[in-house]
Amino acid sequence: MTLLSGHISHPGLADVLTRIDTAARQAGRSRDEITLIAVSKTFDAPDIRPVLEAGQRAFGENRVQEAKGKWPALHDAFPGVEVHLIGPLQTNKVKEAVALFDAIHTLDRPKLAGELAKEIAKQGRAPKLFIEVNTGGEPQKAGILPEATDAFVTQCRQEFGLTIEGLMCIPPVDEEPSLHFALLDKIARRNGLPGLSMGMSSDFEVAVAFGATHVRVGSAIFGSRSYAG
Ligand SMILES: *Cc1c(COP(=O)(O)O)cnc(C)c1O
Fold first, then answer.
1. By the number of CB atoms within 10 A of the CB, which of 98, 126, 157, 210 ranks highest?
2. Position 95 pLDDT exceeds 90
3. Atom number, ligand 1, closest to the C-alpha of residue 220
């Protein structure tokens, strides 16, 4: 960490950044292709500020209300901050979500796509959109099924006029994540999508090896959460 940056080091953040650098180098990828999203859900300003002071600018939240409570003030204090919604989005929260977030990683159904398109037009503000794919086909999990994703990408583009940045997945906890990362990469490529939001604390280095452009890392930076979030 260079003194010229004027940043105070944060041990969890510094460690994750080093590990991303190493994983990128080993994969022969440019470090600039990978955005670290520091997942700050369940943590409040006293835990988030040191990470901001260390220079981190992209953060992830999984609840609209929680993000609304803590981010506007931090946004004002730290220019250049971007906040990503990584949790499920209900259609009745779309207005707030479009106003608040710089990216939404959980677009997974036509009704939501329609509401997002309407609100983006109304507000003149367009968060980057990722389609969540349920790569493991888990019944309890959000996301569009892999076999339905091509048609949904086309529908988002043609019927709703949305620009889709990429795909997102959360692999099943008990499975080898690389199979899911490879599947997501394959679906993204054949649809001409540049973004891959994949990889969490336990597997972000594997995700980088499989082409992740956005890794979503919480506990490895902030420590363990007191509830599941
Ligand atoms: C909580 C969460 C993360 C971060 O999880 P960690 O294991 O703490 O890194 C990433 N993605 C999503 C969708 C999450 O809900």
1. 98
2. yes
3. 9
